[in-house]
Amino acid sequence: MIKVRDELNCKEYLARKAVANTIDAIKVSKKGFSNDALAREHKLKSGLASNADQHDIAIVGGGMVGMALACALSSNPLTKHLNVAIIDSNPALGRMDGIKKGELPDPRVSAITPATISFFKDVGAWQYVQENRHAIFDQMQVWDYTGSGYTRYNAKDLGKEMLGCVVENKVLHSSLLSCFKDKDFHKTIYPSRLTSMDLLSRPPAKGPDGNSGDSTLHSRGSSAKLDLSDGNSIYAKLVVGADGGQSRVRELAGIQTTGWKYPQSAVICTVEHSTENQCAWQRFLPSGPIALLPVGDNFSNIVWSMSPTEALDRKTMSEDIFVREVNHALDYGYGPHPRPGLLGKDGKFSWEVPPKVVKVVSERMMFPLSLMHAKKYASNHVVLIGDAAHTVHPLAGQGVNLGYADAVALSKIIADGISVGTDIGELSLLKKFESERKPANIMMMAILDGLQKAYSIDLGPFNVLRAAAFSAVQHISPLKKNIVSYATGEQKWPLFL
Asked: Which of 136, 197, 311, 431 would give a disulfide with 265, using CB separation of 3.0 to 4.6 Å?
């Protein structure tokens, strides 16, 4: 049972204290308190401060990646005994909101890889995704505006069942939350924000009597004190920053970042077709890529990168004009349809026209694009995962998959540490996580950044080189299989490493 902490009002407190005076003992089950009120009474009678809780791990950020880590920990025999806190002010975590049937698709979606799907199955969250709208796709077409370069991926031709699955972020989050709720696991959700963090960098000095000096953190067996916006404080052995690109944990831990802003913003929205879309489409335009991703039924998701000025214009223009511009961008606009090239004379040319968009069924949202990478993922008793550690360009939909891979790796590292008796907040243990995930994330970031820059150049000779690269991918099967294996998470490194 998940405990959601809030302050007791004065009357409730006095009433409970009066009851406590007439009871000799309060029985508390070994696997946790049955409700928050009993937990508070027990703390009062045992002399513990009523505004402090002690945990093994405090996950700051209860979004998709933070909740994925919690589910991973609760599913591993070596870590499911841990006492885990999740700190997030999102009220949906306390209400356990479900997905309403018949709702139009939300514009915020993720294209998750087969590797991510396997993780969801392993922790028991995939069954919840299947109960809601999602779109598995086994084909993908990528082409550019010159008419010279294109490639088409078909899962069957590559010996795979699928290339990926497009799911609304709210469905992914709700599925992980439902899975987390159903786990027999020591868990507490704090609907609050992290305001400050104190870390114990070294053991407290010993006094004349040989005993350790006064240290609240040390006496509690914890190494971090987290102060919350509601006035409460909690203690933990390990703090995990899963709180996004503007991470408060990263800021308080003093971890620096590197990166830059792209001269682009993304416009996203949900659109409707007259027929169902079963393919993922992406076209590279002079100002940035446009993607059309199936989300189930006759709906697709648009992710269109362009200059901030263009993005603002397309966000605010009338729906009819926007629909016309989308179809223009996906069809003949900006240049001709792809045509067979020098390597396309073997009869394998199979470029297809994307389905026509007939209606916009969601708000159009606009986001600035940037690349950010933390200079380190771990410090003493603190570790970063997901967007708190890295953000990437959305052109390949890899952002959330990198975050899920972080969660999987960190949960395994923690389990390995427990198996040999290592403190879960020990820096040497957390550095193992960093050494595993940092090179992999940097490689993906470099590839995506390279693609973004390559398609920002509109120059004749460079266009020819790009077209040749497209043709090579389309007609050299081993190369295509390698790219797909890497992009879907099946293969850790691309071919050239």
From this structure: 311
In the chain, the amino acid numbered 43 is: K
Q: Longest C-alpha distance within the chain, in Å?
A: 90
Give me the residue spans of the domains in the chain. 53-200+222-488
pTM to 2 decimal places = 0.84
Tokens (6 digits) for 1 = 């049972």
Q: Distance (Å, rounded) from C-alpha 175 to C-alpha 238?
A: 25
Closest among 414, 69, 455 to 291, alpha carbons compared: 455
Sorting pLDDT into bands at 50, 70 and 90, what band is 462?
A: low
- Can you list the positions of beta strands (E) in 288-422? 288-296, 299-306, 357-360, 365-374, 378-379, 382-384, 390-391
Tokens of 465: 């080189």
Residues 6+ apart with CB under 8 A from 56: 82, 83, 84, 236, 237, 238, 424
Q: Are 283 and 143 in contact (CB under 8 A)?
A: yes
Condensed to tens digits (0 to 9), the pLDDT of residues 255-297 reads 999 999 999 999 999 999 999 999 999 999 988 999 999 999 8
pLDDT in tens, 402-418: 999 999 999 999 999 99
